[in-house]
Amino acid sequence: MKKKIALIFGITGQDGYYLSDLLLNKNYKVHGVKRRSSSVPTKRIEKYLNNKNFFIHYGDITDTSSIQNLVEKIKPTEIYNLAAQSHVGVSFFTPLYTANVNAIGVLSILEAIKNTNHKIKFYQAGTSEMFGKTISKIQNENTNFNPQSPYGTAKVFAHHITKNYRDAYNLFASNGILFNHESPMRGENFVTKKIISSLTKISLGLQKKLILGNLYAKRDWGHAKDYVEAIHKILQQKKPDDYVISTGKEYTIKEFVNMTAKLLKLKIKWRGKGLKEIAIDANGKTIISVSKVYYRPLEVDYLKGDSAKAKKNLKWQSKININELIREMIDFELQSLA
Ligand code: NAP
Ligand code: G4F
User: Fold this and answer.
1) Is residue 201 a part of any domain in this protein?
2) Which of 51, 53, 112, 336 is the most exposed place for a label (fewest CB within 10 A)?
3) pLDDT for the residue numbered 1
4) Which residues, judged by CB distance below 6 Å to any ligand atom, belong to the binding site of ligand 2?
5) Residue 97 domain flag
6) How many domains does the chain have?
7) Can you tell me the distance from the alpha carbon of 334 to that of 338, in angstroms, rounded to the nearest whole number?
8) Nearest to 239 by CA among 179, 305, 163, 178
9) Which of 15, 87, 129 for a ligand 1 pocket mutation test, highest count of atoms within 8 Å of Cβ?
């Protein structure tokens, strides 16, 4: 049988790392797109660079011609768009840039597919941030979107334009609506990685303090390794469709801190309220405090996903629980410090 050919935009990120691994193990030819950078952009995917089925090309989803050229040259059977300015907080500082990448960039890929080959299957990396300020206790594919950031708003455009192209041009174009997913490969400035990296260093006496923002937002956190399995399954269905991918369990940031501290055997006690809230260690030293700097102009207070449709149609459910996720992330930090 002819090898399937995948083209991944966003291959250098967290999900790109896990999706590459999955597709190479399934005997795909994997092509990925890297951007020019002053530092090494392929750090995460270094271990695949010598694989004979792995190919990296320069490109950028804001450069329409580069997308068209790559699609014509590579002739992919499947395109995964994981590329995004993916930080919600940063999107308030770079709203136009974020819209250009996260919304218009997606339209450019769809145009390239429409103009080249309607048989190419397309995956768009949608997000639970699209639900934003929701009144639904648990969110599924029928829950209204009410985004609270330039990031979420641009992703809503991407979601709808993917559906538009599916309906108007009969493209196999599907949206994943993925809730937060983490791993040792997570970017340094997302809250889970920041907490785990800092508390691990604090437990070893290598860092004095961790400063966080809103401790009371709730998130539904899964493992990226589980979630890329769902992404792949979405493109193996008979028909294109949209799927919520989540664990169905939610925790506050403070609970995440407590779970991490417990696994590190770091005894902490919380004191105070609001911006004065702190956590002290067994010696009474303040090791966690709160700063306005990490608050966002608008917050998404509560996210918890209902993946019943994915369970039924994709036969998918998350396998790695939150304690296993934190344990793996701690072990990775310890190894990188050794
Ligand atoms: P990530 O680690 O931040 O990776 C983002 C990737 O996009 C990187 O490879 C980045 O390249 C690339 N990129 C950014 N701008 C680009 C551009 N203009 N052209 C081409 N590539 C560009 O994000 P992730 O956690 O893997 O998430 C993957 C996707 O899923 C994103 O679209 C994100 O919005 C979405 N999502 C993530 C989560 C989550 O919890 N992780 C949940 C829901 C949805 P550089 O390495 O050069 O920066
Ligand atoms: O880790 P976060 O930055 O992730 P956020 O905003 O939920 O976005 C992530 O998940 C989305 C899916 O729902 C993705 F679409 C998106 O690409 C990204 O992967 O923040 C989580 C929560 C927020 O409520 C934030 O206000 O943690 C709170 N928080 C508290 N202190 C902090 C901090 N967030 C960050 N990044 N840094 C802090 O110091």
Assistant:
1) no
2) 336
3) 75
4) 86, 88-89, 127-129, 179-180, 189-191, 194, 212-214, 217, 219, 253, 294, 296, 299, 303
5) yes
6) 1
7) 6
8) 163
9) 15
Tens digit of each residue's pLDDT (9 = 90 or more) over 284-314: 999 999 999 999 999 999 999 999 999 999 9
Q: Give residue 2's pLDDT.
A: 87
The CATH number of the domain where 232 resides is what? Answer: 3.40.50.720
For residues 128-146, one letter each, b for 16 or more C-beta atoms within 10 angstroms of the residue's C-beta and e for the rest, the string is bbbbbebeeebbbeebebb
Domain assignment present for 213: no
Residues of the chain with pLDDT under 70: none
**Measured distance CA(198)–CA(214) in Å, rounded:** 17
Q: How many residues does the chain have?
A: 338
The active-site residue, picked from 17, 48, 151, 302, is 151
CA of 160 to the centre of ligand 2 (A): 23
Pocket test for ligand 2, best of 139, 143, 191, 289 (most atoms within 8 A of CB): 191
3-state SS, residue 190: coil
337 assigned to some structural domain? no
Cα dihedral 328/333/336/338 (nearest 10): -100
**157: containing domain:** 5-184+222-248+302-319
Instruction: Say what the pTM is.
Output: 0.98
Write down the pLDDT at residue 142.
98
